[in-house]
Fold this protein.
Amino acid sequence: MAYEPVWMQDPSKLNKFEFVKMEKDGLDVIRDIIETYALRGYESIPEDDKGRFKWAGVYEQKPKDGYFMMRIRINSGIMNVAQARALADIAQLYGRSLMDVTTRQAIQYHWLRVEDLPDIFKRLEDVGLYSYEACGDCPRTIVGNPLAGIDPNELMDTTALVNEVNDFFLLNRDFSNLPRKYKMSISANLYNNAHAEINDLAFTPAVKEIDGEQVLGFHAHVGGGLSAKPFLAKPLDMFIRPEEVLKVAIGVTTLFRDNGFREKRHQARLKFLIAAWGVEKFQAQLEELIGKFPARGDDKTLGWQAAYFDGVHPQHQAGLHYVGLNVPIGRLNAEEFHQLADLAEKYGDGTLRTTMSQNIIITGIQEKHLDTVLSAPVLQRLTPFPKPFMSRTVSCTGNEFCNLAIVETKERARRVAEYLDARVPELNEFIRIHFIGCPNACGQKHVADIGLQGALVKTEQGMIDAFDIAVGGILGPNARFNTTLKGRVKGDDVPHVLEQLLLYYKQERHAGESFHTF
Ligand code: SF4
């Protein structure tokens, strides 16, 4: 029997994009792109379908003159060499060789034309990759532990679980019209490699004694998300066995689909439903839908490493290593990506892995090959041993390509990191700096040690780029968002202001104090 969502009962309250979604499912646009728009060109695309392009993983690029950006979903960030080469080929053929690693482990292209999209979809499908539903009001890329399967610090390998949940939701028309975007994470890493608290639904490692046996499983957290009103996900009082993860994911997503708010788009994320209901009511509704679960067990999240892996590290498998590379501000070119794929094939286990810190890992390298890998020309720029600030600077796309951006971010972030690396003496700790170009927070500013959010200020010369600065964000057991400081800093003054802030911190910090324990 077809479901009857609560929102269908009172259409007078819906925001106008709900009617666009009701008129035609977002997923239908994929067929229209292939059969119609790619043949007839950019001018043939109606405005409503441009909005639906997100379900194909495609956005219009700034300044809306015929070019598009596209995100490719990569489960847990893990891709094989054939997939990596296909991604690099697409960038070379259609995307001016530009490849961005996003904060959700996706690969993002720019400069695509609608005529290119059918071939890109096909090239992706040929290697088992998809851009579909990487954007839109649907279950998006499921982030996970990029070290899954090789991680000395994971409770279990979550690769297959992420794939299972992804395969269920991808192109599933029962869930292709949610109130708003919907983000999941599944990781059993003890250091929160998938940033659980900022997802709509997150699974984190847990253990519970059941019938005298220590059972490995998960805790679930619901209602996290950033943007203008950030929320940390709240834990449900449930212990979930690995084989029940999909059932819980279906239950939570169903509750969101049928009860999430569809009146105002800026209040439609799951976090607003959780805030309105309270987590207890949400859990009661969930258990009514999918049955009772045992109460929480022992939480196994020990801390947060912010998904940084730079350097050479031993794997779970004796004798093998992974090498975490720094991709400055998450941007590399297709030739570099090809060279990384070559290294992974020749000296590694044939996979590349993207991280939520916008970096890349090569895995499965034997001791005897480490020197060869480390001396590879491509690792001279994408170095495993980056300078401190360049290693910990994250940036969203900004106004170079993003229509929502207020300011430029990516190149500015690179210049700021270079400036600080040249000017700030050793701090004996890494300071994570995140830039975002608008309140949507794709660069996850709220969880940074220093978060910079783009804004404008009025000067005698007119409106110019500026930033609000916030300090002290952290996830993990002591999770909290950063606190915005008073005042707004002109874009050109950001390097100097951050330098002064860091020098003051270095001088004034107490013994044992770190940047997020003040
Ligand atoms: Fe665009 Fe804003 Fe997201 Fe940056 S944070 S990529 S400016 S929507």
Observations:
- Residues 245-259 form the longest helix (15 residues).
